[in-house]
Amino acid sequence: MKSSILKSSIPGLVEFPARFNKIPTGEGWVEGRRGVDGAEGLWRVNDGLYDLTNFVETHPGGSEWLTITKGTDITELFESHHLTDKAEKLLPKFYIRDAVKPRAVPLTFDKNGFYKKFKERSMNALKNIDFHRPSLKSNLLADSLAITTLFLCVITATTQSRLALIIAGTSMTLATITGHNYFHMRDNFRMYYWDISLMSSREWRITHAMSHHMYPNTIWDYEILTFEPYFQYLPKIAAPISRKFSWLYSPLVYLLAFYSQGIKRYIHILLVRKKLEFRDVVPFIIPTVMFLATGDLQQIFKQWILIIGVASFVFHVIGLNAAHHHPDIFHDGDNPRNDLDWGLLEMDAVRDREIVDDSYFLTLTQFGLHSLHHLMPTVDHAYLHLCLPALEDTCREFGIGTRRFTPLELIKGQFRQLRRVQVKTNYR
Description:
Elements: H1 26-36, E1 43-45, E2 48-50, H2 64-69, H3 75-81, H4 86-90, E3 95-98, H5 114-125, H6 136-159, H7 162-183, H8 201-212, H9 222-225, H10 240-273, H11 278-281, H12 285-294, H13 297-319, H14 342-348, H15 360-365, H16 370-375, H17 381-384, H18 388-398, H19 407-419
Antiparallel strand pairs: 1-2, 2-3
Helix pairs in contact: 1-8, 5-18, 6-7, 6-12, 7-13, 10-13, 12-13
């Protein structure tokens, strides 16, 4: 049963017709935004309409962010992706007129609210850091994992070892997740590490950065929708089969998810986009090198497909248990807090983890320091810890709890959330 039939429990968050799409895609989600945002073919920030056409090619973050979002309300993206006031000062040059329709999203960015206070304190913490660019530390770790993955895949091809195959698939997962650090940033080649898995960095900029990050655990969150009807995370929906049996078939979903995304990706390229980009060739670099090492096409294809399956399974074990799903974490349908500050929604829909957040390696490869990452998605994970005091101070000021969960708590909590149908008042 699709949660698209639900109205949001967040007052003022409109229903989202794109949730009725038979096959959910990033492009479909953007089209859904264009239908409800009242941007009139332009770019909307708060109640103003702006024509950024002449700015697309010179946008410091890359043109893709603007070409994708044309015709939508980019308020949340604008606020969370521009941490200094440079963009805010530049924006009035592109003003056209006020919007006619009210915003479809009720979330606020008041100057005395949680998010603005946190951002101001964080900028002070990062004042001596070039946070617009990734750190050398992250670059070296990401590159090392990508090279290691390629090496292990070649070892698998030449030895036909099952153990090497499992290790190669696990390494592919870790290399892929480092790509997540980079596709949130301005265009760069390391964001393509995400694509070695068959998943698309372009698609995930939409479904993850633009949807999930801005509206986590709500009916606007693509990462909630995409697993329905197999997994139903939102309470108040009966979904008796998935509620009772999802724990049983979840390993199969984990295993097949990369294949599913890859098939959708190339069907979309063939039938809709009708053009290839460099990122669309990236997934085939590894099997090509494996083939060059052995010359056995049939065997290489089989091994590569199995490596993808292992990577998919490990990725979803990590990703679905990383931060968002637990009965004590807000999910749409629960009673939200009265203060609709955007930063507070982010905090209520996320929990941080012990062990993972204490290790830089695990932070980069297992979606660590997740609260800070949601609040500052463009900042390299290597710098996020510098903003912890700012987050703790702001949480104290607003009475927000900061207790971390253990990884085991979140794993068990994720399965408990899949069974939960009772609505509760649910915020930190």
